[in-house]
Amino acid sequence: MITRFESPADIAAIRAVTIAAFKDHPHSDQTEHLIVDRLRHAGALSISLVTEVNDDVVGHIAFSPVELSDGSKDWFGLGPVSVLPAFQGQGIGGALIRKGLDLLREQAAAGCVVVGDPDLYQKFGFRNDAQLVFKDCAPQYFLAQPLSSTGASGMVTYDAAFYAGVDGQDGAA
Fold it and tell me: Is residue 112 within 8 Å of 101, Cβ to Cβ?
């Protein structure tokens, strides 16, 4: 198993992995692959890692910048993280999360946020933080992990490319 930065040759595989990973997910609107495409197109993929097994891409994770209403800098959003269904439960997603967070720390990032299953993300140090709010998200599903001693608070906004219809892009590669 090898985890590395994505290359241009990985784009189709990343798309396929992301589609497959979210196909039957009960809280997915099946657009996660489009989010990754739009972030890449906008130059907003701060970290994009893949995991290979036998030279095949089986996992992917994306980190993109977020803005905080208090003006705090160097915060990032994790997601989506995708693993092919046949490889789920083998630690690939966790390895991607840990590697991505390590890279953010190396870049002196202030913190990272994620929308997702608290039982999963708390294993990696994410916690609910009443000081940080993500509009239209139940607070228990919005978690943060400070990566520095600098505090932050306020409304969190993901990069515009995270949302459908930005700049007329549909995410097609």
Answer: yes
Report residue 49 as tokens. Answer: 């890692």
As a whole number, mean pLDDT of residues 133-152 equals 90
* Cβ 49 vs Cβ 99: under 8 Å: yes
Q: Which helix (H) or strand (E) segment is 169 a member of?
A: none
Which alpha helices (H) appear in the chain, and where do they start and end? 11-22, 32-41, 92-106, 118-121
Q: What is the C-alpha separation between 112 and 119, in angstroms, rounded?
A: 17
What are the extents of the domains in the chain? 2-160
Beta bridge partners of 64: 77
Tens digits of residue pLDDT in 2-60: 999 999 999 999 999 999 998 977 676 767 899 999 999 999 999 999 999 999 999 99
- In CATH, 2-160 is 3.40.630.30: yes
Q: Does residue 75 contact residue 112 with C-beta atoms inside 8 Å?
A: yes
Tell me phi and psi for residue 169, to 5 degrees.
-85, 135
